[in-house]
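Supplementary Methods S3. Complex input for the 5-phosphoarabinonic acid-bound model.
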Amino acid sequence: MEKIQLCVKYAEAAIGRDAIDALRPEAEKALRTLVNGDGAGNDFLGWLRLPADTTPELVADINATAEALRRDCDTVVCIGIGGSYLGAKAVLEALGSQFGKADGPEVLFAGQNIGEDYLYELQQYLRGRRFGIIVISKSGTTTEPAIAFRLLKEQLEAQAGREAAAKLIVAITDARRGALRTLATSEGYKTFVIEDNVGGRFSVLTPVGLLPIAVAGHDIQALLDGAKAMQEATLDGSDSQAMLYAMTRNALYRAGKKIEILVNYSPKLHYMGEWWKQLYGESEGKDHRGIFPAAVDNSTDLHSMGQWIQDGERTIFETVISVDKQSHRVEIPTDADNLDGLNYLAGKRVDEVNKMAELGTRIAHVDGGVPNMRIIIPSLDAASLGQLIYFFEVACGMSGYMLGVNPFNQPGVEDYKRNMFALLEKPGYEEATKAIKERI
Ligand code: PA5
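Predicted complex, serialized as structure tokens:
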């Protein structure tokens, strides 16, 4: 398996290698804390050894369930939000085609917003379709997916009949608790468990991510194998790239770079940026600390955000995900008239132009005071993505401990929910309703 590589040359150029190396003892301590499981949030470390510990039986069960949905459905709607959505979406976008129908059912997403028009349009689209539902909620009580599931379950039962609908719904939730577990038991849905010790944003390599990915026809064993290779190399210390990433981003933060922008040069990685933002934002943004995670899609965003990044406030650094080999070859043709002046590129691959855009941008940015790192992934295949996912997860655990926060809780997520429930006059929130109404 070709390995992913991290290059920190253009971060060193900005703050010096010594500033990065000075953090090695802290990073090693953070890794030991993760491995020994004796730090804050240590009851949420199930993800740490997940790639190696996932049994062939679970993989077979996921693949068999996916196969049944592929056979019986033309469309599968995955319902979930946050960690119950972004990992699957990121991998599906990276591995699938951007255009045209996939090999197998179309995989759509719902419950990741409360957009009324979104849900209306989805319901219209599903009319007359043979659709199935994968409903994912660890808590089983999250409002956004609960609303979407109530609507789509009703529609599926109306279209297919209640008994048939129950065979087309798969629930992924807590082993014992929550409304979704209760409903799944009473309706006889096929279920998978999200273990107590795996937080939502670290759950992509559980059935939460693996089932939608398998439904789309991708090789989940290859994804797990990639993650396992990164797990083993990181935890036994033979590969310290995740550690170097944690060290470098913390060194940059301490040098005043408060915002990290994850940059891709492939539109297929847009949702990898969204997944990464949740992973790092929810893990590190606490106690009034934390690197703010942002993301751009280049070269598209060089034409919108490029000015700010090159020349705005100097509080940012970048981490570029660079895909070494494209899966397909497209060459720029010669044109007899050459009105666009592009003949100097004739015969070159589009990717060569893209790579020069990337290199030119990185040099311009470091010259303009924006240090950058580069993660090179061999190609957009399952094994490379598995490595990348685990690389980011384990680096996030280390980095959070280096920042001095508990990387595995998310107390701040509850505040908007409390206000929303109070405003919606949810039973049990009477006092909060009274208090919030006085403020508006
Ligand atoms: O990382 C997290 O814990 C959150 O983003 C959750 O995944 C998200 O809020 C969805 O929660 P649940 O799966 O309980 O519906």
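The pocket of 5-phosphoarabinonic acid is lined by residues 81-84, 137-139, 142, 145, 199-201, 282, 410 (CB under 6 Å). The chain has a mean pLDDT of 96.
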